[in-house]
Amino acid sequence: MNDPLPFTGERFVPGAPGEIWYEHWHRYHFIAPMVAGRVVLDIACGEGYGSALIARHAAHVTGADIAPAAISHARARYARCANLEFREADCAALPFADASFDVVVSFETLEHIRAQETFLDEVRRVLRPGGFVAISCPNKAEYSDKRDHVNEFHFRELYRDELAALIGARFPHAAWYGQRPGFFSVVWPEQSPAGAEIFEVSESSADAPSPGHARPLYFIVTASSSAEAIAGLKPRMSVLADRDEWIYHDYEKVTRAYAAAQQGMSDRSAETQLEAAAARSRQDEAVRQRDAVIAEARAERDRLLEENSRRASFRWWLALPFRRLLRALQGLPPGG
Fold it and tell me: CA-CA distance, 78 to 97, in Å (whole number)?
């Protein structure tokens, strides 16, 4: 049994909750058709889930990571994949010969390392002529600046012009894509649109996409008595994105409120538990005091019963006049 790697926040692992799993799985699904039939290097492969996914399309995939624990885990978990191997490797000193790969994939690596220039030099070295690299990294302006966010595992995040300069010095031709998780209104055709794709995954089986979208909330239909009229309408997919991300921010607000309520309930629960413990302590003390009073009362009762029993005896009554005379001669008050 291969135990899962713990999620520390430094690298994504399958099963980690939140929008992070959308981001990481989507990148590998996006690049997978582009590496079909090619020899691929996946740098900073981590747990190995992405290498295994693109290995379904590629001729061969090598997953590389500097962490021995990650590589050991990946080798065990994905051992059945014949065209996939994992190697320990420093991304700034790759242990591969020149021109070894058709494609180098490196998602969310650049911002984690100091030697960014050396890393990209190594990528260029191991790429074959005509090969390409696929890189992702956060957009500092959006990821950190606008959100006032600090990721403790990032050494150096880049603005677009910085990333363009870093890549352009080594790879003069580039096609740029943007990625952003969020809430969208999507209109899609039931037949595949040209130049686009839509697929569904779930967090528990993010490596098993199903084509299309099986759960439309609304239907939009184009219809005509003319077959040519409908045939002339090319299938296309349309995405309306909310520039102000109203739903997303509302979701964040509700999530924060829920978390605060849960924390408040937890705090109140802890306070209630302390109050209950104090009440139990007071009750226990009251019980101890009650038992002490009862014990003292019982002892006094027993003493009086014994005294009464003693006084009731025949011998006691016969000796009573002599005891009183003796006390009088001694100058003592009358007594028993």
Answer: 25
Nearest to 188, CA basis, from 242, 235, 240, 241: 235
Query: 160-168 and 116-126 helices cross at what angle (nearest 10)?
Result: 40
Residue 39: count other Cβ atoms within 10 Å of its Cβ: 17
For residue 268, pLDDT over 80 is answered with: no
SS3 63: strand
Active-site choice (108, 111, 122, 157): 108
Walk me through the domains of the chain, giving residue ranges and CATH numbers: 1-182 (3.40.50.150), 268-336 (no CATH)
Q: Is the pLDDT of residue 85 over 80?
A: yes
Cα separation of 228 and 105, whole Å? 44
Can 306 be counted among the known catalytic residues? no
Whether 91 and 64 have beta carbons less than 8 Å apart is answered as yes
Average pLDDT, integer, range 163-176: 91
Strand partners, 64: 43, 87
Asked if 38 and 58 count as a contact pair (C-beta separation under 8 A), the reply is: yes
Whole-angstrom distance, CA of residue 147 vs CA of residue 167:
26
Distance separating alpha carbons of residues 286 and 13, to the nearest angstrom: 56
